[in-house]
Structures are given as structure tokens and as C-alpha cells.
Amino acid sequence: MARKVEVDQLVGASEISRRLGLRNSSHVHQIRQADPTFPPPLVQLSEGRSGAFVWYWPDVEWWAKRHGRLPLTDDTTQQPDLDRAREDQDREAM
Predict the structure, then answer these.
(1) Is this prediction's pTM over 0.90?
(2) Which of 31, 47, 82, 87 shows a CA-CA span of 20 to 30 A to 37?
(3) Over the Cα atoms of the chain, what is R_g?
(4) What's the total number of domains in the chain?
């Protein structure tokens, strides 16, 4: 079953870097490669090193709040339901 997301919540590395206050989008890719807890992109739009990645902002926002890159709020103490569903699917696939 495919994951349903809100299209207006899809973001690329440039948008993530802007929202997190990073200098440029390359920092997003550095974090992605260095931190295994950073949410995986939903899709890679093109092949190779310069491929465009697309993330679901609520996933990134949850990660950022849990890692001190955005302020925590009451609604970020639990992982979003969609993420839990994806983790369950990943566990079942193992």
C-alpha cells in the first residue's frame, strides 16, 4: 500500500535548508549521509549524484525538532502516524 502524503508538504533540499536555517542545500545532503536517523527521501527524481530528492516536510520537521534544529512543541513528542506506519512496514519487510 502506497503512503499517502499532502502534496503541499513535499520539499527539496533547498527548502529544507531554508526552513532549518542552513547556509545551503549541500548541508542537507551532508546531514542525510552522516545521520542515519535523518528521514529518507520519499523519492529521488533523477539518477546519479546530482539526483533531486523529495522529502515529506512533517518527517523532516519531526527529526529537526527531536535533534534541536527546531524548537520542540507539544505535538512533536510523538513521531507522526505516517512515520510509524512506514517503520512498521520496514520491520515487516525484514
Answers:
(1) no
(2) 47
(3) 13
(4) 1
* Residue 46 included in any domain: yes
**88 is in which domain, residue-wise?**
9-93
C-alpha cell at 66: 527531536
- Closest-CA residue to 35 (of 1, 4, 69): 69
Percent of the chain whose pLDDT exceeds 90: 56
Q: For position 86, what pLDDT does the model report? A: 54
* Residue 49 located in a structural domain: yes
HEC sequence for 24-69: CHHHHHHHHHHCCCCCCCCEECCCCCCCCEEEEHHHHHHHHHHCCC
Residue 4 lies in a domain: no
Edge-to-edge strands, sheet with 10-11: 10-11, 53-56, 43-44
pLDDT at residue 34, as a whole number: 96
Residue 56 placed within a domain: yes
